[in-house]
Design a protein that fits this description.
The complex is a heterodimer of chains A (365) and B (224). With 365 residues, chain A is of the alpha+beta class. Chain A starts with a strand and ends in an 8-residue tail after the last strand. In chain A, 23% of the residues lie in helices and 36% in strands. In chain B, 76% of the residues lie in helices and 0% in strands. Classes of the chains: A alpha+beta (365), B mainly alpha (224). Chains A and B meet through strand 7 of A and helix 7 and helix 8 of B.
Amino acid sequence: MAATLTARVRRHVCDLHLSIDTARAPVTVLFGPSGAGKTTLLRCLAGLDRPEPGSHIQFGDHLWDAPRVHVPTRRRRVGYLFQDHALFPHLPVAGNVGYGLHRMPRRQRPERIRQALAAADAAHLHDRPTRGLSGGEAQRVALARALAPRPQLLLLDEPLSALDTPTRTRLRGDLRRLLLATGVPTIVVTHDRTEALTLGDHIAVVIDGRLHQHGPVDTVFNRPATAAVAAVVGVDTILTGHVTGHHDDLTHIDVAGHVLHATPHRDLNPGDRTLVCIRADDIALELPGPPRPASPRNQLPAVVTAVHPDGPVLRVSLDAGITLTAYVTRPTGEHLDLQTGRQVTAAIKATAVHLIAHPAVERPH
Amino acid sequence: MDWQAIGVSVRLAGLTTLILLPLAVPVAAWLALSRRRIAVLLEAVVALPLVLPPTVLGFYVLTALGTASPLGRWWQQTTGATLAFTFSGLLVASVLSSLPFAVQPLVAAFAGLDRRLLEASAVLGRTRAGTLLRVALPLSKAGLATAAVLTFAHTVGEFGVVLMVGGNIPGATRTVSIAIYDSVQAFDYATAARTSAAMLVFSLLVLTTLYSLRRGRRTRWPRP
């Protein structure tokens, strides 16, 4: 069901150009601060808001918005997950999930409702009334309701923001797995960095109504194209690796042939794909010397590739076989004589290496 | 007590309610949910019977139903009867004069709906009519009940319009309120008193029912 979505959406202060190849990026995250125009874009894609003249939205062969063209929401066959779920309170769970199945023969609907609930890990909620569902349960039911009519595009507006923290953490990991399993191309709006990293293949950074950068998650987080993007995504090193095993109360991860040590992550098994996140503040730089006992578990020989002043500190780009970004104070920079080509050792405590499970896209070969 | 008049009143109020509610639902939905500015003008037109003297409304209805008007003539050609001073004519007048009592509670109910529920319905492929029937109406049951009760009660209590359009024909257009007026004109105060007392009890009963429908969701003072 892969198709290309191209959109130019103008509305109020927003003027967004976006092109998404859903085959390459099954899940695209629209990321940016609140009020940047992400939800406006999502609502225009769904047809809930009508973009201003000069806008153009095309999904595969379907022209949705253009001069004198506006396909109404009900004909776009999109699934939309509202921030606060928007379940119909007067219908039970099964009634909610079956609500969009009116074009389907009546006899086939119960089976489809069961399938959709199962796809959202909510099969056990089938006979429950809607009032009284917990936030996480309502979220799964809302997802099942959106999936039941087999939409060609799934739009999620801040899907986890209405949930309490433990539920959000639990569902965050599940959601990407569920989304990949459905095979429906998905666009997720979020202002939460962890959510963006956990859910997305590609990320589109929206700031002040403009698209600033669009690309694979790790590229955007490691190499922000503009200062504005850097400020929004934070300066982090995001690497993709695989878990090799758990030893000595540490999780070992292989990142492009280098082994990193992290505090144990219970949900990860050997072979699992994971994102490795290291904050720039958490990377200490030392001059190379003979090995000596030290507390940081990760000691990586590296070469300085660039030094940028960033306010009161220096942002140092390093090549350690993997690309790292570190913050050091200006006096430290002078003391270590940091400049391009300098040999250093990057020291990272295992507790500063954050792992985010990130299952790969299963592509048919 | 004039049981025949009570029969006419109940029949008139019942039929008015039955005809008016299906009309009022789409009108109220349009008034409450439309994005068009002209909705404001239509809302004012719908509310007119509240402000207009019943005689004015009755006068226009009488003129419109008379054989001099195209509508009156068409009715006479199709049915062979006139509308003015008949039960059917009275029904038309009563539907018009009760319009705001049916529409306004529904407008309030629809306007209070969570917009996201309507959007969710649209995303799931439903038309506006489908959304109205399956989401807006089921969630507006209290508004619908209020509209029905108010329409029924207002029709029973209507006097001026009935007198203008219906006249005073026993068994056809002579309603309770007209009957009381008649008794007083004939100095039959005993009958007038009995019928008036019956109307008083009926009205109180209706209003008690109405307010108990809304009681559950009201905000109260915190306990002392």
